[in-house]
What does this fold into?
Amino acid sequence: MTQPPFAFASDLDASGLRFGVVVSRFNHPISAMLLEGCLEALREHGAAGDGIDVAWVPGAFEIPQAARVMASTGRYAALVTLGSVIRGGTPHFEYVCAGVTDGVREVMRDTGVPVSFGVLTTDNIEQALARCGGEMENKGRDVALAAIEMARLVPAVESHVPEPQS
Ligand code: INI
It folds into this structure.
């Protein structure tokens, strides 16, 4: 009979883990609401108050640098990045979005530390407000849960010893 595949359980227990949060000050009210949702979710899932470090940076473009420094310390089970880039009338939006998305992906690839992506990239402020506690959701919460799940999954995969093939 064929054995069922081994499946890693999805684990959202944040207790005993240390998280780093990098949050951009640009469009501050949006960032503050994203941070609130993120902290609430981490705490609800068991993270201790002193198990969360928050680093504010000037804008989304600076997020990858702060995330890289935090990840390189080896102290964090996962990082959360938060911010908001709102389209203006020039190509600046595209450059900031590309810088932060590529930069965060590179930090994750280079360090192996999970980094969840909670930087809103929207056409206008209404779309941003709707995603940080408005009528739709708070993306800060969602990305905090992604960080917890990956913080648990990565070491579980690394320490998993597969059954020998018969
Ligand atoms: N930074 C943001 O986080 N959001 C924006 O909408 C934004 N806009 O529109 O310009 C923005 N720009 C600043 C940028 O992230 C850097 O802080 C700045 O260029 C200094 O390096």
Notes: The longest helix spans residues 139-159. The mean pLDDT is 95. The pocket of INI is lined by residues 24, 26-27, 58-62, 83-86, 88, 92, 96 (CB under 6 Å).
